Amino acid sequence: MPELPEVEVVRAGLAPAVAGSTVLGVSVLDDRALTRHVRDGGHFEAALTGRVIRSAARRGKFLWLPLESGVPGAPPADAVVGHLGMSGQLLLRSPGAPAERHERVRIDLVHPVHGEVAVVFADQRTFGSLAIDELVPTADGAPGGLGTAEASVPCQVAHIARDPLDPAFSDAAFRTSLMGKRSAIKRVLLDQTVLSGVGNIYADESLWAARIHPETDAGSLSARAVNRLLSEVRLVLHKALAEGGTSFDAQYVNVNGQAGYFAHSLNAYGRTGQPCPRCSRPIVRVSFTNRSSHFCPHCQKMPRPR
Fold it and tell me: Which residues are tagged catalytic?
């Protein structure tokens, strides 16, 4: 599933094309792409046509396009919210471009400077979705996510925690949330209500970089260890962003259809049996809650029971 870097690459690619654009028309080719929308495809098309998109925003693995309310000076009241699921793609195409393989929704826009463009939502496995959703105030009064100055977030995203690259993310609150937890630290990193945007790939990479065993009790980590882990999480995410995200197949691409190349920089994830870049011992893979964990048993030792 695309994680924070992959979704942020898509958001950053969409932003200059969609911000300030007017929706000329919408074509829903498959209602399965609207599983999070309250009504059917016809409603989605009618409710979006003619609206002006203010910006492109993201929190964790969710992105949204706030829509102008039509009232001068009033903040947006709703937005197009999207989740890429396992194989969703948001692509920028020329107006009238041929349909993409697995195309589900097409949104035709006109930008006041750049002219007409089409935003295509394609999804091979149909686990992703688009919806028009109400915007609600953020609990902390800070902007809802990266790419927006509005202190609001889609209803469907309100339960998602801020991500480590969000300026409003609180390191102190994260440290406090770990106190007394007996859950494995990797499980906590994957909990989107505690810290969002980090999935299996970047959890493994961050824990490797911080030299922390993935099954370490989260509550047993010292404040210093938690600070080190957060620092490594951010470094890993920034590096992945710089390299366009991680692509293992053709399913994750940016808005221009290009794959990311962070897969070539992975130290632990997917490297079972290969030498650890730090100590040369083999990386191991173990089952972990319907997923797998990749780590170095020598560099990431399990703490002894107290």
Answer: 2-3, 61, 291
